[in-house]
């Protein structure tokens, strides 16, 4: 068999480990041919592909980014959903001209949605869940998440000393447009006093009162972790709004740190390397068994798979009864509500 591998959407730690897991398992254990497709789905359309062998796949386990490059798939998806039959035929023709028996698509929510569309067009595909946001439906965890949480937690740890020394409130903005998984996990691990996530929203006065209460109890510094997707009443940037609100209401000097793309770059954690290797190897096993149209996932701590049609268009969000939220509240951590 000949399989193709591509990565689509944003980069994240662990993609190369996944490519390696898929490729080496396919070559060494199953005797398959492997093609690396450059530049995401656009590379498939443009036939921008080259063979991958063991030499190509050596030395990439610990590399961040992706050796295959990546791109957003909006234009490609528009071709798939076009009413013009010739548009979708261009894609299936490219797949067959490359001689592929299956295409492995590494990516987040948008990628899984596009991969499902390819399955609906009769192509053999497997999805692999990649995102630091950990918001892909149907899997307990995605590779890239653990690394992002580690990076954010280390930043919070470092900010404690400055906040304490200067008696300041420190705002730490982490990634997460619609899901607050990074903020929740890093905030709890980093000992934050306030954690704000998109799923719960917040009231500024609740945040301010938490900080004032800390001052009254002799704690003159506070750490506030906020996901970038939390909506502000005046639609301004989260850190800008909260800095103004906290300083005005409490009189405490407030500073903000926005971690941004730092969370997506660099070397993957050991956990993410091993998770990516496990998921990649299982993807190849599915191909060998002829089980296509599925996304590899983690269920109850074990690697498994789920139909792509069950994943596409859904998000896994933090719920108010999550055990970290419940335990945080018991310990006096504020979630802004």
Please describe the topology of this protein.
Elements: E1 2-7, H1 15-29, E2 33-37, H2 40-45, E3 49-52, H3 54-57, H4 74-80, H5 85-97, E4 102-107, H6 109-120, E5 125-129, H7 145-166, E6 169-174, H8 181-189, E7 194-196, H9 204-216, E8 222-227, H10 238-250, E9 254-258, H11 270-289, E10 294-299, E11 302-307, H12 308-311, H13 323-330
Parallel strand pairs: 1-2, 1-4, 4-5, 5-10, 6-8, 6-9, 7-8
Antiparallel strand pairs: 2-3, 10-11
Helix pairs in contact: 1-11, 7-8, 9-10
Defining key terms:
43% helix, four-stranded parallel β-sheet, seven-stranded mixed β-sheet, 337 residues, alpha/beta
Give a verbal description of the structure.
This protein has 337 residues and is α/β, with parallel strands linked by helices. Helix content is 43%, strand content 17%. It has 13 helices and 11 strands. The chain has helices at residues 15-29, 40-45, 54-57, 74-80, 85-97, 109-120, 145-166, 181-189, 204-216, 238-250, 270-289, 308-311, 323-330; strands at 2-7, 33-37, 49-52, 102-107, 125-129, 169-174, 194-196, 222-227, 254-258, 294-299, 302-307. The strands form 2 sheets. A 7-stranded mixed β-sheet has the order 3-2-1-4-5-10-11, with helices on both faces. Strands 7-8-6-9 form a 4-stranded parallel β-sheet, with helices on both faces. Helix 1 packs across helix 11 (270-289), helix 7 crosses helix 8 (181-189) and helix 9 (204-216) crosses helix 10 (238-250).
